[in-house]
Known about the structure:
Order of helices and strands: HHHHHHH
Largest sheet: none
Distance between the termini: 57 Å
Helix content: 55-70%
Strand content: under 5%
Radius of gyration: 18 Å
Amino acid sequence: MKEKKQINVEIGRNIKQLRESAGLTQEAFSELVGLGEKHISAIERGAVGLSLPTLQRICTLLSVSADRVLFGQPEEGPADDRTAAVQLVTERLSRLPDRQFWAVKRVLDTVLAAMEPGGGDNHVIPR
């Protein structure tokens, strides 16, 4: 059996963490990336590496930088889960195309307005 390369193991771990943070199953993720579920599993386990086109598709799909996939969470990054989640969401939002960014903002504004006291009453959905 072929020995796993440490770099593939680290990248696979990063991809799995990012996929899970995005709320995607391996099955859904594999369909969106255009690879088989077994191939995604092998990448996440570090059994195989990934090509540059695959790296690009993963980064685009998850709205993260290649640095995040290759190197993971920065060491000097946030210590707590909430701060880390905010940082990841911010990074993902900043990479969205304009149309998708503004659509997400409208949805978020609507959700936050609904969560305010009396939020379900008389609130206007922004356009």
